[in-house]
Amino acid sequence: NAGVMQNPRHLVRRRGQEARLRCSPMKGHSHVYWYRQLPEEGLKFMVYLQKENIIDESGMPKERFSAEFPKEGPSILRIQQVVRGDSAAYFCASSPPRIGTTNTGELFFGEGSRLTVL
Amino acid sequence: DQQVKQNSPSLSVQEGRISILNCDYTNSMFDYFLWYKKYPAEGPTFLISISSIKDKNEDGRFTVFLNKSAKHLSLHIVPSQPGDSAVYFCAATPTPGDYKLSFGAGTTVTVRA
Q1: What is the pLDDT of residues A36-54, one digit of tens each?
Q2: Would you say A111 and B105 are in contact if contact means Cβ atoms under 8 Å apart?
Q3: pLDDT at residue number A58
Q4: pLDDT digits 0-9 by tens, A67-117
Q5: Closest chain B C-alpha to A109 CA, distance in angstroms
Q6: What is the per-residue pLDDT for A40?
Q7: B91 contacts on A by Cβ (under 8 Å)
């Protein structure tokens, strides 16, 4: 399966613990995006990364959340000291390099990681 | 601030009939619109898109209509099939290729046999 791979699929944490979500992009894709879907809402952009670079983190909460995409290995979304409001589905997406407006804007999404904070 | 709204959380339709999903947006800067389809336990997959220079785009059984003056778009599925049962998300962005999509909350379509 050459699709976007996310793990874990389900993660349960107690308040104050840390959550780490991992994402491996599709083969040949070098751009990774994280989106969050809160209950009853649409997906909301969080962060856009390329290898070793954060390109746009305008959708990330200023505290407790961080993301990285190292030279080797998957992209990681890290949430420190989780609170109940962090309970959501976190989707990772990837795309090939963006070349002007020839790109249709299609993002390829993974299956998501559902975080539950007790 | 929900800039893209799908006011019908669910839709039930008979197999073979037309499904019409509606989407409204508030940001006049949006110029490119996409529909994504999501099955349970899977990620959203791209279905069809339309640029604001068009008012209609068709791909097989799926047609998207855009009314820019009303800030409204709709997705028509004709004929509906049981495999179309899924959640459909409307998304919008200021430019094609922009990664920062604004999504609606989704409409769950159930196609009855």
Answers
A1: 999 888 999 999 999 999 9
A2: no
A3: 94
A4: 999 999 999 999 999 999 999 999 999 988 765 444 556 789 999 999 999
A5: 5
A6: 86
A7: 42-43
Q: How many interchain CB pairs under 8 A, A with B?
A: 77
Q: Which DSSP string do the residues of chain A spell out, in sequence order?
A: --S-EEE-SEEEE-TT--EEEEEEPPTT--EEEEEEE-TTS-EEEEEEEETTEEEE-TTS-SSSEEEE--SSS-EEEEE-S--GGG-EEEEEEEESPP-TT-S----EE---EEEEE-
Report d(CA A116, CA A38) in Å as an integer. 11
Peptide bond just before B79 cis, omega within 30 deg: yes
Q: Tell me the pLDDT tens digit for each residue of B17-65.
A: 999 999 999 999 999 999 999 999 889 999 999 999 999 999 999 999 9
Looking at the partner chain, which of B42, B45, B103 has a beta carbon nearest the beta carbon of A42? B103
CB < 8 Å from B in window 55-94 of A: 56, 58-59, 91, 93
Residue of A43, A111, A114 best to disrupt the B interface, most CBs of B under 10 A: A43
Q: Do B43 and A56 touch (CB under 8 A)?
A: no
